[in-house]
Amino acid sequence: MSVLTSARPQVVAIEASEGYWRSVLRRFLKDKVAVAAAIVVLAIVLAALFAHWIAPMDPYAGRTFRRLRPIGTEGFPLGTDELGRDMLSRLIVGARMSLLMGVTPVLIAFGIGSVLGIAAGFIGGWFNTAVMRTVDVFYAFPSVLLAVALSGALGAGLGNAMLSLTIVFIPPIVRVAEAVTTQVRARDYVEAARASGASALTIVRVHVLGNVLGPIFVYATSLISVSMILASGLSFLGLGVRPPEPEWGLMLNTLRTAIYVQPWVAALPGLCIFVTSIAFNMFSDGLRSAMDVKA
Amino acid sequence: MTSPATPLISVTGLARHFAVRRDLLGRPIAVVRAVDGVDFTVRKGETLGIVGESGCGKSTTARLMLKLIEPDAGEIVFDGAEVGGRDLPLKEFRRQAQIVFQDSYASLNPRLTIEASIAFGPQVHGLPARQAVERARALLARVGLEPARFAGRYPHELSGGQRQRVNIARALAFEPRLLVLDEAVSALDKSIEAQVLNLLVDLKEEFGLTYVFISHDLNVVRFMSDRVMVMYLGKVAEIGPADAVFATPRHPYAGALLRSMPSMDPDNRTEEAPISGDPPSPINPPPGCRFHTRCSLAEPVCAQRAPVLGGGDHGVACLMHEAGSGHSRAVGAAA
Amino acid sequence: MSAVELQGLNVTFTGGTKPVRAVRGVDLGVDRGETVALLGESGSGKSVTLRALLRLNPERKSRIEGSIRVAGQDVMALRGRALEDFRGKVASMIFQEPSLALDPVYTLGAQIAETVVKHEGGSRAAGWARALELFRRVRIPEPERRLNAYPHEMSGGMRQRAMIALALACRPQVLLADEPTTALDATVQIQVLLLLRELQREFGLATIFVTHDIGVAVEVADRIAVMYAGRIVETGPVREIIRNPRHPYTIGLLRARMGHEQRRGARLEAIPGAPPDLSALPPGCAFAPRCRFAEPVCSVQDPAEEAVAPQHLVRCLRSAATLAPAG
Fold it and tell me: Which residue of A232, C92, C109, C271 has the lowest C-beta tally within 10 Å?
């Protein structure tokens, strides 16, 4: 046992390897599409955060005499809506609500879903069966229908809309979390950790979490676009944000009557939803490949 | 309680069946009898080699004896104390009995540095983090990986041979007495395999270890082992001193297995396969002697009666070696 | 004329950040009715060489240079339909994992029959008849029943036999085998090796057999070509290679192998170090850093091929020193 017991207070300079997250960043930066998507996402988030400083006009102030001006009108670069409000300002301010409704339910669902899924995957047995079969029940309904039904049952309003979206997103996240955890649990290093006599909690903390949270998170980011579209849908149906608050889905709804008068202006909120969700999707795709160590 | 003569580990009646298919009510339809009544002991300081083909239960046996899988039946006694009993809690047993797996990459947490992986075990057993890291670095140096270069690296930055050295260091960090090597060198290239085998031989002497060495490569098992156990479909076919088993195998299967090794003599190539066919599936194995379906010496009685492992130091489970078994070649039928 | 003729084969993988020189100037000829074992460790380029013969390496991520002639055809010049006809009909391949070659959703009989019909035309019934004949030939028990089985319903050894039957379905002239017995159990491996030896003789196939196991090479091959870091470092008749190895790497491999004479617990003569990084090869001989015969010149000068006995070629500057190896 000489090697182990001889106390050699020798200071060795350890060659630090590139840390995991740094290597992820390096790989991510090489992926041009993902970087472009990240810049778009960042721009939208910044626009949403500082909306009231950026917006050139008051998004609520309308004048009936300047309703539905086309794109490129002087003073209204993106035209005006059916109540004569500046579209550019409304779109910028509307990003806040849309992002809030896109991101918050996913984040909450990520927290709850991860805990349930990881527990189900790691504990296995009857607990796994109980959790997963419950989750399966939610899969019986299409997500749009489920969101609408829950929102309708809970009553219109921002909070209820977000709550119903959270419920919609928990099952898929649980499923992914359970699948990833089951995979990791079967790895030899987890078996080796069990052979070390470590408690289940320690094994989860040291060996499981680090290896499953990444993939679950990446999956969750891909749900943000879905959430935005569903949220817009709820607002469109009058179950989410109330007028006159600007929100892309709601704007799409109120402008639909103008589709024959100013089709391009009416399409703008839809375009915003489209671009944002695509950007989030490409961002999460890039993140997923960057997190693959062996690549 | 623990004299040098006490076996380090002794296993009796070890069994584990896995249900592979269940009906609607969850009752098993098909059962894999992975390990089905296995007895053996490992003496202090020796290396017991376990050989056999896929599905023979050698890896399951390793996991059962370390209680990584809960056995359905059987008793495991470690240095005179029952594992999990009052004198030897499971956690302490796990410190003293460690395992190295075949897949060097899957055995290491990809998110931990090499030194963190090695230091994890001692920390579980109460060693302060600083000392655990120190021990990890000392062990890295011992297994031939310069700590200054390797301690901070991640598993994917190492070669297969280097990772397996790390896995050996990880197991040694517990200061174990028993090390189970489950196909630990099988995935390595031949030139690297020889290096790791040399290291294992040295470490055994230096740390006073006892090995259970599992491999499908008979040459390697022969080189490493003092005693050898040959398994077939979840049962022990033969167990005995390595020289005796390799020179004069008593079980027909052991003999066939040895003769299946490729010849190294170009003028004396194998001309006829020692046995035909594939090993049967361990799902619903044949009745009686499990080898009778492929055995050239099998007689009707072999399909009815299961042989019992007997014969002392060089034990064999074969009706030909059981007096009065009814097999025409049975030894000393009259005596 | 040789059935297989490789000259100056270079394969460089360009998909990663740095080009990986997997094969560096391989010359190899295999005659009709001859079996050559390509022996080497992972990363030695043995499988890449084999795949190059069927142009199976990913074309966009690799650069292939040199001349590849199989049964008189210039493989590098084959395009589209001609390449498809070449694969399977002129030269076919068996793999370590039958699942790479066998389609899980079709029965084995259907797959073989389809291959026959595709390459040779004729009726489906004729294809089935050929499949049945082949199943008998590779000695699959109850061949009529097994033709209707799916790959997953067979054991590993039977699957491998079925893959051999599939590979021989169109009576190719060249058989390429990529570690076909590595995943098999010992008692099954020897059966498959003997079967391959027998079929090779019967069909007069030119066979290239890739393996990492010297014992397997001895069982099947007439000649052995030892590969290291993308190059054939020694080639010769099996007896010569086993009894008078002249390249230090071959000598090391033979010594590191635990044979009957190896005493238990005695130190093995391991080759120190590890194979070089193929994207950053050292100058001179690639084995020099691990070689106990190496001299300063070895890390400067690239060794040329030298005949040390009839048909026995070695790439080593120090081949005079390895004649009577010390120790």
Answer: C109
